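Worked Example 4.2. Consider the chain below.
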Amino acid sequence: MNWTQIIWDPSPGGNVEHVEEHDLTTDDVDHVLQNFESTGTSRSSGRPWVYGHVPDGRHVVVIYEEVDDDTVVPFTAYEVPEPRRKRR
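Applying the procedure from the previous section yields the following structure tokens:
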């Protein structure tokens, strides 16, 4: 997943609003989409997600839809606790 286009909708109720509701910026989400550390699928929506760190160090998950190999539409993003490391 190496997206070159990220679609942002600044209209009321659009994905920019959803991201800003969680004290994040579109730049934060862009950073996670380009530098994610893990991937998965949301249990509630069935949409894919990526996990990573924003530049200020917070741990963030981004729920998105892939339009094609080059294009992604983030639906929302929010801070999550850092995953626990397994003890040996």
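The longest helix spans residues 26-34. The mean pLDDT is 92. Compare this with Example 4.1 before moving on.
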